[in-house]
Amino acid sequence: MTLAQKLGKLLLERKQTVTAAESCTGGLICAAITDISGSSDWFGRGFVAYANQAKIEMLGVSEAMLQVYGAVSEPVARAMATGACRAAKADWAVAVSGIAGPTGGSVEKPVGTIWLAWVGPGVDESELCHFKGGRAEVREQTVQHALARLVELIGGQA
């Protein structure tokens, strides 16, 4: 059973829904979810907010927050998750913003730097990850980690 299948099973059991707000993964989380037949029962929409303007317009991330912290930051990932949850009227959201490479990295935020955030009933969590590999590998590791933690968080609910 894939992580997305496990996610769907948990959400169906709880009669809950999920959404995703993605930057560097460009819709790969949504693709993993919609690969599952019947996922429309627990996934209505997702958001690919690659550009900062998209984060502002679609997810309600403030321009000031982007200027102060940058797109690849904990506050922005958290705001993306909260904004996606609100916009999709979903119970759960996962958001990712990072530098998949091969360009775009810096000393402070090297390639592979990814901020993830999850929100849901009683949950507001974020995590900084540093993944290794090329662009495709960084993106795939991000998707797998995003879904795995979401499954853990939902599975831990009473």
TrEMBL record:
Listed Gene3D superfamilies: CinA-like
SUPFAM superfamilies tied to this protein: CinA-like
Transmembrane stretches, start-end: none
Database matches in Pfam families: CinA (PF02464)
InterPro entries assigned to the protein according to its UniProt record, in alphabetical order: CinA-like_C, CinA_C
Domain CinA C-terminal: 2-153
Protein name: Nicotinamide-nucleotide amidase
Species of the source: Formivibrio citricus
